[in-house]
Amino acid sequence: MSRPVRSVLYIPASKERALEKARDLPTDAIIFDLEDAVSPEEKDRARDLLAEELTAQDFGARLRIVRVNGLDTPWGAADLAVFAGHPGVDAVLVPKVNAPAVLDAVAAVVAKPLWAMLETAQGCLNAAAIAAHPRLEGMVMGTNDLAKELGARFRADRLPLIAGLGACVLAARAAGKVVVDGVYNAFKDEAGLRAECEQGRDMGFDGKTLIHPAQLAIANEVFAPSDAEVTLARRMIEAYRAARAQGQGVAVLDGRIVENMHVANATTILAKASAIAALAV
Ligand SMILES: CC(C)(COP(=O)(O)OP(=O)(O)OC[C@H]1O[C@@H](n2cnc3c(N)ncnc32)[C@H](O)[C@@H]1OP(=O)(O)O)[C@@H](O)C(=O)NCCC(=O)NCCSC(=O)C[C@H](O)C(=O)O
Ligand SMILES: [Mg+2]
């Protein structure tokens, strides 16, 4: 199991105070943003500030991802020149990836693992080819840009976005890549955030991107296996073992069948719980 990414916090690279706070926040990963959270006037200063912070600060076990500007913008090439080999960066996140060719262009100058923003109609339609890119490790949904491009309305059930979200989860799973859900904009609305995290978790996402520290606790809780799920996973594995010892291929637990794929799922749940517990030590 790859490292947990229950919570993935965006931090605008132009905000000193937010960058400073990040070292102590309980987030599994950080996206240091040079793209949409930074105004054109601030782009150059933000790039320099981030390069310094990533050199000077220790972000502990948190995965350090830098979201660069696209290569089709005035800032993309300079961003890549600074962060392509920066020792404080674990991965480079490429915005608005429409096709694998966008990743090819970045891969030509960056030796680090790549992540891709899926946030256009074309990107969602090409999700399988993008997910299969050999240098790609993770995918991030950009639900604000996607809604804008679709002309879709924001709804609590996200019905207009479900086709795109589902296509990207399918693509990520088919290619064995990490996939993280989009942000919830109303950062003071805890009930709304929880509902959207639960929906994303139930669809198969590994975690949620966040915009404010107040959103961390809910994402960390929702995307972690609950105590009840861990207990059930152990019991399923045990029941299946006992059935197999008696020559049976199927166990019955609490009135439900347990077969080999349920055991594989239970094993994944236990591995995820262990990986999360290891972060806490
Ligand atoms: C949304 C915000 C502008 C709110 O900022 P602010 O008014 O400063 O909030 P608070 O006063 O409540 O902040 C309290 C303290 O927390 C720190 N803080 C705030 N946000 C962050 C953060 N993201 N990371 C770390 N620390 C943060 C403040 O500095 C305060 O600290 P203290 O002084 O000690 O009290 C702001 O939260 C913000 O800018 N959020 C990030 C916005 C962003 O990154 N947007 C771009 C990504 S979303 C996107 O583009 C997704 C995708 O591409 C798509 O298309 O959907
Ligand atoms: Mg976007």
UniProtKB/TrEMBL annotation:
<dbReference type="GO" id="GO:0006107">
    <property type="term" value="P:oxaloacetate metabolic process"/>
</dbReference>
<feature type="binding site">
    <location>
        <position position="67"/>
    </location>
    <ligand>
        <name>substrate</name>
    </ligand>
</feature>
<dbReference type="GO" id="GO:0000287">
    <property type="term" value="F:magnesium ion binding"/>
</dbReference>
<feature type="binding site">
    <location>
        <position position="145"/>
    </location>
    <ligand>
        <name>Mg(2+)</name>
    </ligand>
</feature>
<protein>
    <submittedName>
        <fullName>CoA ester lyase</fullName>
    </submittedName>
</protein>
<dbReference type="GO" id="GO:0016829">
    <property type="term" value="F:lyase activity"/>
</dbReference>
<keyword id="KW-0479">Metal-binding</keyword>
<keyword id="KW-0456">Lyase</keyword>
<dbReference type="InterPro" id="IPR011206">
    <property type="entry name" value="Citrate_lyase_beta/mcl1/mcl2"/>
</dbReference>
<dbReference type="InterPro" id="IPR015813">
    <property type="entry name" value="Pyrv/PenolPyrv_kinase-like_dom"/>
</dbReference>
<feature type="domain" description="HpcH/HpaI aldolase/citrate lyase">
    <location>
        <begin position="6"/>
        <end position="213"/>
    </location>
</feature>
<keyword id="KW-0460">Magnesium</keyword>
<feature type="binding site">
    <location>
        <position position="119"/>
    </location>
    <ligand>
        <name>substrate</name>
    </ligand>
</feature>
<dbReference type="InterPro" id="IPR040442">
    <property type="entry name" value="Pyrv_kinase-like_dom_sf"/>
</dbReference>
<dbReference type="InterPro" id="IPR005000">
    <property type="entry name" value="Aldolase/citrate-lyase_domain"/>
</dbReference>
<dbReference type="Pfam" id="PF03328">
    <property type="entry name" value="HpcH_HpaI"/>
</dbReference>
<feature type="binding site">
    <location>
        <position position="119"/>
    </location>
    <ligand>
        <name>Mg(2+)</name>
    </ligand>
</feature>
<comment type="similarity">
    <text>Belongs to the HpcH/HpaI aldolase family.</text>
</comment>
